[in-house]
Amino acid sequence: MAPRKDTIFQRFLAPAFELLIDGEQLKRLSQSIDWNQAVTKFGDSENFVYPEYYRSQNFHGIEGGYLTRDAAVTYDAITQYVLPPGETLVRQGLIDAIRCQPTTILDLGCGTGSTTIMLKKAFPRSWIVGLDLSPYMLAVAEHKAKQAGLDILWLQGKAEATRFATEQFDLVTASLLFHETPPTVTRAILKECFRLLKPGGEVAILDGNQKSLRQVPWLTEIFEEPYIKDYAGDSVDAGMGAAGFAAVLTEELWWLHQVTLGVKPLAARAGFTTREDAIASGDWMAAPGY
């Protein structure tokens, strides 16, 4: 699908990226992937229903959004220039903020797998899953992981309804996902994170700095993101608290980005909602903080 010509991105930024991006390299990447096989492998066309909020939007002003081959091929090439002071530094901020030592990890909305791969390198003994809606993005992610010699499971699925077992993961992450989901879906994703985590498990969310986006509104206009204004006016901290997470903390990264962390209370394993409930029951070890 072709990009719209009237967007800010197409009028002002796309010409600059054309000078910065190696078109031949992207062509080689595209030719190295069997796209028909990838769509068949990752896309359950008969049974999978794409959410309306995802299927109906033109992310970054591109018709078809992430459900196109071109979007997947160009994603990394563009993203390296739009995450100041550098994509790797920003994604490393999420890795550095993680406080647990996970053996099971789920990376939601993994896209082309950049954060997922960094998580695997940081926790090499972990079993890690990258989940995304786009089979095209997953095809690039798998290609990158194979090039790096990393064993990662890539699956198509909805972050708000993953179909994984309850309490299956030590760590659930999401990078640059929440600004691309409407508020109702964001809240559903956080509830799903809570369900998926083992008691004491951790969630880590990397995205735009909500405070900065509110202070400088034009930042929400550049890349034609359909839900970024809703994201800017929302609070990941509040969403985590509402989902049941404790020890919620947001750390600012390079002014433009933020990492928000939360822990599923140990009390959750016994069905308690507060530390006081756990202590009153006599189950001291189930209380948060023990």
TrEMBL record:
The keyword Transferase is assigned to this record: yes
Gene Ontology terms: biological process: methylation
Domain Methyltransferase: 105-201
Coiled coil: none
InterPro entries tied to this protein: Methyltransf_25, Methyltransf_Superfamily, SAM-dependent_MTases_sf
Pfam families: Methyltransf_25
Molecular functions (GO terms): methyltransferase activity
Designated name of the protein: Class I SAM-dependent methyltransferase
Species of origin: Planktothricoides sp. SpSt-374
Lineage, uppermost ranks: Bacteria, Bacillati, Cyanobacteriota, Cyanophyceae, Oscillatoriophycideae
